[in-house]
Amino acid sequence: MNTAIITGISGQDGLYMAELLLEKGYRVVGTTRSPSSAKQLIPKAISERIKLVNWDVDNYSQLCEIIEKNCPNEIYNFAALSSGEKMYLNPALIGLINGLAVTKILSAINDINPEIRFCQASSSEMFGKISKAPQTEVTPFNPQSPYAAAKLYGHQMVNIYREHHGIFAASAILFNHESPRRGISFVTRKITHAAARIKLGLESQVVLGNLEMKRDWLFAGDAIQAMWMMLQTKVASDYVIASGISRSIREFCQVAFERLNLNYLDHVISSEEFFRSTDSTNLEGSTLKLQSIGWSASISFKQLVHKMVDYDLALLQSSININNPKDLPEQSKWVI
Fold first, then answer.
1. What residues contact 254, with CB distance under 8 A and at least 6 apart?
2. Which residues contact 252 (CB under 8 A, 6 or more apart)?
3. DSSP-based three-state secondary structure for 246
4. Which backbone phi and psi does 131 adopt, to 5 degrees?
5. How far apart are the C-alpha atoms of 53 and 32, rounded to whole Å?
6. Can you count the helices (H) and strands (E) in the chain?
7. Which of 2, 51, 120, 322 is deepest in the core (most CB within 10 A)?
8. What would the mean pLDDT of 239-259 be, rounded to a whole number?
9. Of residues 74, 125, 251, 284, which has the active-site annotation?
10. What's domain 182-215+246-283+299-333's superfamily in CATH?
11. Residue 123 catalytic?
12. Bridge-partner residues for 241, per DSSP?
């Protein structure tokens, strides 16, 4: 039986990865800052089948002990602080968790068992402000935020350990990947949740930033499938994980509100207060390299948005606490 360690297991990506690996017969070990708190956030169907362990990302000896005790074949790193305005309040912490922790994992693998395969969740935000699209695995990076800079450091360390030490280490350059498990603070979930609230008469409008900002969105479950496939190849390499099509926030709003027979123009307000000058622009990933290992998306952009809207509508109708994923309706655990 293969064993995998998933860092940051209680987040959207960690949960989808845990589900996928359990389906494939893996023994799954998840690291978290607080196992007791994480257990409250993880659906019971998953928590009962995995092992949760504490890891302080600044504690190298603790990480080594976890690896030595559990003897993983693969490690997937999702431990990270997310992007957003709050990242500017403590960029040093962003650097520690999103950047330096990656080096600690790579170093531990090299010291304990160089045969362990490692996948890093990198980010399309590393591309920053660029004019050329689509972005590929060789497109130059131009990070515009502490989050992106820290992610780029981790990404480059993956390349260094792969080339210098011969470790099977790969970076997944993840473009925006969404699902009903996405946190309510993310713009996509903010849109779908607001649309559902408006449909139910709980509010009349939602205020967003730049509606013309474009992103390349795909289903989080498809992104996770791609990361697993990356570690099954013969040669370690980095891959862009995207849908291959960029769409504006305006289009996301249109599809979400139309699902509920609403016109987004009647309810969505764009305010410069929420514009961010450091936002990456023109993000669109090339999937050619990823397709070469057999990957394809399981659902379309429209289907993804509809799933998220349907989920939020059901969530509000059942009056369940949106801040506790453990209490989410069964549809939150879809496998598509």
1. 264
2. 188, 191, 217, 305
3. coil
4. -105, -20
5. 6
6. 12, 13
7. 120
8. 97
9. 125
10. UDP-galactose 4-epimerase, domain 1 (3.90.25.10)
11. yes
12. 174
Distances in Å between the alpha carbon of 74 and those of 11, 65, 178, 243?
19, 16, 24, 25
Q: Has domain 3-177+217-241 been given CATH number 3.40.1190.20? A: no
Task: Provide the residue ranges of all domains of the chain, joining segments of one domain with +.
Answer: 3-177+217-241, 182-215+246-283+299-333
d(CA 293, CA 110): 26
Token pair in block for residue 151: 């992610």
The H or E element containing residue 303 is: helix 301-317
Instruction: Point out the catalytic residue in the list 122, 123, 145, 246.
Output: 123
Q: Which of 147, 161, 264, 311 is catalytic?
A: 147
Rounded distance, CA 253 to CA 250, Å? 5
For the stretch 133-156, what's the b/e string if a residue is b when 16 or more beta carbons lie within 10 angstroms of its beta carbon?
A: bbbeeebebebbbbbbbbbbbbbb
Residue 85 among the catalytic residues? no
Give tens-digit pLDDT for 14-63: 999 999 999 999 999 999 988 888 888 899 999 999 999 999 998 999 99
More confident residue, 274 or 295: 295
173 vs 129, residue with greater confidence: 173
Would residue 147 show up in a list of annotated catalytic residues for this protein? yes
Q: Which residue has the tokens 């949106």?
A: 322
Element (H, E) at 30: strand 27-32
Burial-class residue 51 by CB neighbours within 10 Å (0-12, 13-18, 19+).
middle
Least confident of 64-68, 172-176, 249-253, 329-333: 329-333
**308, 192 contact by CB (below 8 A):** yes
